[in-house]
TrEMBL record:
The keyword ATP-binding applies. SUPFAM superfamilies: Glutathione synthetase ATP-binding domain-like, PreATP-grasp domain, Rudiment single hybrid motif. It comes from the Bacteria. Its EC number is 6.3.4.14. It comes from Ktedonobacter robiniae. Pathway: Lipid metabolism; malonyl-CoA biosynthesis; malonyl-CoA from acetyl-CoA: step 1/1. This is Biotin carboxylase. Pfam families: Biotin_carb_C, Biotin_carb_N, CPSase_L_D2. Residues 1-445 form the Biotin carboxylation domain.
Length: 450
């Protein structure tokens, strides 16, 4: 087992990894920007090293500085969390070159599964169904030809990156040229890769993902599914497990196929396969996230398995102790992402000082957050402030518990999305489990954001 792990991230996920390390008797080193000098993870870690100024390009994406910090501190492994360098193949390769363990898959497998087009091709070979789509497109003329072949409406997606960037629904041919050009410029700026691919559009699609764990000896398990259909601009805002309306037999089939597929490509560590499910319950592989997901807590609450600890154990070379038949799913979990945004003003980002901070409590309530009273929200990073997660025996009880927890949650000093989540939890469509990827957009008026 590792004696010391460096955490190449910030915010709630950095704090989450620090806590796992402490419970496992592993010393933690946190790298941080100047803007995060007074953050809770920096306070809680055993060691701390400043790696640059506030902007992430000069700090959390600064590979030479992070590697230097790991070498100086004698860290044996690096946990990348999510975002930033978590799916950067160059970073994983450099870690290997300097004999530091990257807590995640190998760079070679990450390069295949992290690229959406090559991942599709690999999963087709492994037997997973996919939507009709295209190879990588880089010119408008070849994209026009491909669009005519697929037909409208269709989805345009970036090959690289994530976070909903570069994803567009195009309904009519006359919209195509403009949208393609805008999306390509967006992803070129964000990811330094202007690759685009097209995919057939599925109306009222549900976004369902399967969590997998695979050790270095090829033994793997799936930990069930998460429904992530509540999205805004292709960004998830609420996740739950299990899926409220999919048949259990279908979810088990998806899980078994997912684990066989990743074993076939030699995947190791934790990962998530994302699927679209249509109204006839036909499912199609979309992409794979080769890292820990923001929404991993809902899986932890329904399985009782600590995913971060399992990541660390696998990376250290220990065999997975879990067998598929040992994994029991119990109850229902819901997570909401509370962000520093004003939902009543088109989710405009907010900054400021947290003047008062009171977290909800009681049975079945978990808060993953780096906030505290007096904390100043820096302007350089993602707007995620907190993940509020609840567990209960039934979905209806989980909804009631979440509504109660949201009522208790106090984050004063800046506008957050707590009021929006209260409205979402009270919407009849959500209560009935009838959500799909465009649900929030189509119900915007009812949700008070129209």
């Amino acid at each position: 087992m590792f004696r010391k792990i460096l955490i190449a991230n910030r915010g709630e996920i950095a704090l989450r990894v620090i806590r796992a390390c402490r419970e496992m008797g592993i010393r933690s080193v946190i790298v941080h920007s100047e803007a995060d000098r007074d953050s809770l993870p920096v306070r809680q870690a055993d060691e701390r090293i400043c790696i640059g100024p506030g902007p992430s390009g000069k700090s959390y994406l600064n590979i030479p500085n992070i590697i230097s910090a790991a070498l100086i501190s004698n860290a044996e492994a690096i946990h990348p969390g999510y975002g930033f360098l978590s799916e950067n193949t160059s970073f994983a390769e450099i870690c290997k070159d300097v004999n530091i363990t990257f807590i995640g898959p190998s760079a070679s497998v990450m390069s295949v599964m992290g690229d959406k087009v090559s991942a599709r091709e690999a999963m087709i070979k492994a037997g997973l169904p996919t939507l009709p789509g295209t190879p990588v497109l880089r010119t408008l003329s070849e994209a026009q030809d491909a669009a005519r072949e697929i037909g409208f409406p269709l989805m345009l997606k970036a090959v690289a990156g994530g976070g909903g960037r570069g994803i567009r629904l195009i309904n009519k041919p006359e919209e195509f040229d403009r949208v393609f050009t805008v999306a390509q410029n967006e992803v070129r700026e964000a990811f330094r890769d202007d690759g685009i691919y097209l995919e057939r559009y599925v109306a009222k699609a549900r976004h369902v993902e399967i969590q997998v764990l695979v050790d270095n000896y090829g033994h793997g398990v799936h930990l069930g599914e998460r429904n992530c259909s509540c999205q805004r601009r292709n960004q998830k805002v609420l996740e739950e497990s299990p899926s409220p309306i999919l048949p259990r037999e279908l979810c088990e089939e998806m899980g078994q196929k997912a684990i066989r597929a990743v074993q076939e490509v030699g995947y190791r560590n934790a990962g998530t396969l994302e699927f679209l499910v249509d109204e006839q319950n036909r499912y199609y592989f979309m992409e794979m996230n080769t890292r820990l997901q923001v929404e991993h807590p809902v899986t932890e609450l329904v399985t009782g398995i600590d995913l971060v600890k399992e990541q660390i154990r696998i990376a250290s070379g220990l065999p997975l102790q879990l067998k598929q038949e040992d994994i029991k799913f119990r109850g229902h979990a819901i997570e909401v992402r509370i962000t520093a945004e004003d939902a009543d003003a088109d989710f405009r980002p907010q900054t400021g000082v947290v003047e008062n901070y009171q977290v909800p409590g009681g049975p079945g309530v978990r808060v993953d957050s780096h906030l505290y009273s007096g904390y100043e929200i820096p302007p350089h990073y993602d707007s995620l402030l907190s993940k509020l997660i609840v567990w209960a025996e039934t979905r209806n009880e989980a909804i009631a518990r979440m509504q109660r927890a949201l009522d208790e949650y106090e984050i004063e000093g800046l506008t957050t999305t707590i009021p929006f989540h209260k409205r979402l939890l009270s919407h009849e469509g959500f209560i009935q489990g009838d959500t799909y990827t465009r649900f929030i957009q189509e119900e915007a008026t009812a949700l008070g954001i129209g």
